[in-house]
Amino acid sequence: MERLNKARSVTGSRVSGESRGSSRHRRLFWKLRQRWKLLGLFEIDREHEFYPLTCDLKEGLKDAIQDIICSDATQSALTDDDYSAKLTQGHEGYVMRTYAGPVFSHFRQSLGLSEESYSRSLSACGLFLQFISNSKSKADFFLTNDKRFFLKTQSKREVHFLLQILRKYIQHFQAYPHSLLVKIVGVHSISRAQDKKKYFIIMQSVFFPDERITGRYDIKGCHVSRWTEPEPEGSRVLQVFKDLNFEGNVICLDQQRQWFLRQMELDTRFLQDLNVLDYSLLVGFQLLHPDEKNQNWSLANLIVRTKRSVNGAGSPTTSHSASVPGTVEEENSTDKEDDGTEFSGTPEMTSGGRIPLKKIGPQVSTVSDISNVIAQNRRLLPNYRNPLHVMDGPELRYFIGIIDIFTVYGLRKRLEHLWKSMRYRGQEFSTVSPSQYSRRLCSWAETHTV
Questions:
Q1: What is residue 205's predicted lDDT score, i.e. its pLDDT?
Q2: Fewest 10 Å CB contacts: which of 72, 275, 418, 437?
Q3: Acidic residues: which segments have biased composition (predicted)?
Q4: What's the helix, strand, coil split of the chain in %, to 5?
């Protein structure tokens, strides 16, 4: 009996020790998770609550894109059926649905994004990242491992609204290919066993690549609740600041300022026509390296940039110029033009020393085409991996984009406006009419740029 009691005592001590060890492990993991959350971005590993979901997302998205590749959806014109298309794919334990797949495939092609490259980013073996946002919404934000695409959960109502306005959204980019609006490249839903159906959108990250970005701001053009308390100096916390934090700063765009102000007017007017408000202007800062400040003006690079600006908005283009930080390395040795000719970094010159327009592309072969490019407010896009959202000033590179375009000025927002008008009398708050919201954000852009 004494031996038995001793054995029980030893066993109890061992269990108690294991329990304490397990408890210490959990506390350590919890502290680590809390630190990751403060950083705003961390990997969704096997211990993470969203790990099973992201694994299903990877597999489902890969199959959905493969279906598009196999269907060879390269038609030049979209149909009504394309906008209402819904692809349902069953998998073990979940069902994936893809909405308006042909439309988004067509849009990705217009951005120069191949389906193979898109699939690689979404289904790569690297873990998805979770972004902890200070947004008031309850949305979950996932980021592909290469940080190129955001996956954001949306409500059923928001997805329904997006699909309703999708034709106008695509038409806006057809009219203004260099729009600052966030590029939404996919809409899906996933239904998992014993879990509520989740809707989500996929969009290009405005802050890509983010390795050297030193400051991030979310601007709404107002003051109420638009301050983020900075972390102590030296902190590694990833923060997105707001309007009041920006005061004292300016965006120095030099010659590109007028283009930027014009595009802000075009994009906010479009959102105003959709009766949308509460969107944000994202602004990121990045210091230019000395060899980046003047490298954009070489003749070869000008040709590459002109080709990209006219023929395709978002794809990496071939450049045989010297490699510098921030430029895109070519995937192939040559880049095919629309007319089947090959483009190289060394342009052919006419006897008068001019560059023949046909080498830039058939779209600008006539004066009327050039006028159309001007009417579309196009600019000379930089030769970077995120050209539509990148603008270079004399000293800084800016990452700029308009996000969160799903809030409609309906009855709920009108009542919120009345309540805030009484609570914040004489102050600027976010919930105002779409026309006032548009004017105010454009005014902010004008007073904060040089």
A1: 96
A2: 72
A3: 328-341
A4: 40, 20, 40
CA distances from 371 to 176, 363, 397 (A): 13, 11, 28
**What residues does 276 pair with on adjacent strands?**
408
Specify whether 186 is located in the same domain as 223. Answer: no
List the Cα angle 413/415/420 in 5-degree steps: 90
Question: Do 261 and 237 share a domain, yes or no?
Answer: yes
Instruction: Give the range of the structural domain holding residue 56, as residue numbers without chain letter.
Output: 43-204
| 419: CATH | 3.30.810.10
Identify whether the C-beta of residue 149 lies closer than 8 Å to the C-beta of residue 204.
yes
Res 41: pLDDT: 77
Confidence (pLDDT) at 364: 44
Q: Are residues 379 and 437 in the same domain?
A: no
Angle at CA of residue 145, ends 104 and 139, nearest 5°: 65
Closest of 348, 282, 22, 258 to residue 133, by C-alpha:
282
The residue type of 149 is F
Mark whether 218 and 359 lie in a shared domain: no
In a domain, 8, yes or no: no
The structure tokens listed for 127 are 């873990």
Range in 20-34, 278-292, 389-403 with the lowest mean pLDDT? 20-34
